[in-house]
Amino acid sequence: MKPEAKGLWLGALGVMIFALTLPMTRLASGTAEAPQMSAVFIALGRAAVAGLLSAAFLLATRAPWPRRDEWRALAITSGGVVFGFPLLTSIAMRHVEAIHASVIVGLLPLATAAVGAWLHRQRPSTGFWLSALAGSLLVAAFALRGSSASGIAIQPADGLLVAAIACGAVGYGWGGRLSQRMRAEHVICWALVISLPLTLPAALLSRPQAALAPAVWGAFAYVAVFSMWLGFFAWYRGLALGGTVRVSQVQLIQPFLGMLFAVPLLGETLDAVTLCFAVAVIATVFIGRKMPVRAAP
User: Would I find NAD among this entry's keywords (predicted)?
Assistant: First the structure.
């Protein structure tokens, strides 16, 4: 299998893991009427758990220390995917449904492609940008359609989700760049380990004091082990093999996978129109895959 194709498949695996993040976060945080875990504990607690697992993994694999010029990129990656995206989405998920949030976060691939093109000095073709824009517009159209059909209007929490998109795009872009020089698994592990001095005390201070249902702890365990750790093994490796600009577009299918998972987990609804939008978005991903992405002179 060609490296680019392998990168796309690994990226798709990462996206499948990430697609459960918002429904699981919603399950762990509860609603404004019936709150469960705090947003701070969900975001920083999951990073602390993943950070401890990462420290053990780095020791077990005898990972070399990052080079001096890699620490800055690791800090930026950490700020995006360890702190920014998890904390902002955890706060927002108490106030919006998982389906609504999944649609807003569907703009992340376009943002990631833009960051990746800048970092890697690439010039995607006009056809690629048109495909990426078409996919993003389909996601936006779906959001507007949902707002008018079900009364779900643009909400203040959407601002948090937009800020989370910016953080995620930066973290994905810099992490994908590092994965071309380091093992993909080591990138997220080091980003989590250097965050432990902040995440571990914050997790201990914000831990739940009341008894919670096993399903709530199960949701937290998922976002800690899979969303915050194992998913990045596949995702960053996919970005390194297939290129951040191209593989990032696989994430366009994440909102619809998230909606699909939200149906049995949260009792939310999914209709035929949503499935049609999903098929159309997937088509833009395959079209964009055929468009050239050139290195800048």
Answer: no
Q: Which residues does 165 contact at the CB level (< 8 Å), separation at least 6? A: 104, 105, 107, 108, 111
Cα of 129 vs its chain's centroid, Å = 21
User: What is the pLDDT averaged over residues 67-92?
Assistant: 92
- pTM of the predicted model as reported, rounded to 2 decimal places: 0.82
What are the C-alpha distances in Å from 147 to residues 178, 252, 282?
Answer: 39, 20, 22
Distance (Å, rounded) from C-alpha 161 to C-alpha 239? 23
DSSP state string for 154-202: --THHHHHHHHHHHHHHHHHHHHHHTTTS-HHHHHHHHHHTTHHHHHHH
**CB pairs under 8 A, 24+ apart, for 36-41?**
36/208, 36/212, 36/213, 36/216, 37/208, 37/212, 37/216, 37/220, 38/206, 38/208, 39/87, 39/90, 39/91, 39/93, 39/94, 40/87, 40/90, 40/202, 40/206, 41/203, 41/206, 41/207, 41/208
The burial class, CB within 10 Å (0-12 / 13-18 / 19+), for 175 is buried
Q: Are 106 and 280 in contact (CB under 8 A)?
A: no
Highest mean pLDDT among 73-87, 114-128, 265-279: 73-87
Residue type, 104: I
Tokens 């070399």 label which residue? 64
Mean pLDDT for 208-231 is 93
Q: For residue 5, which amino acid is it? A: A
Q: Which residues have a Cβ under 8 Å from the Cβ of 3 and sit 6 or more positions away? A: 241, 242
pLDDT tens per residue, range 156-174: 777 888 899 899 999 999 9
Domain boundaries, the chain: 3-205+212-295
Q: Could you tell me which of 265, 161, 270, 258 has the C-alpha nearest to residue 218? A: 265
> Distances from the Cα of 6 to the Cαs of 171, 190, 247, in angstroms?
22, 24, 10
**Whats the size of the chain, residue-wise?**
297
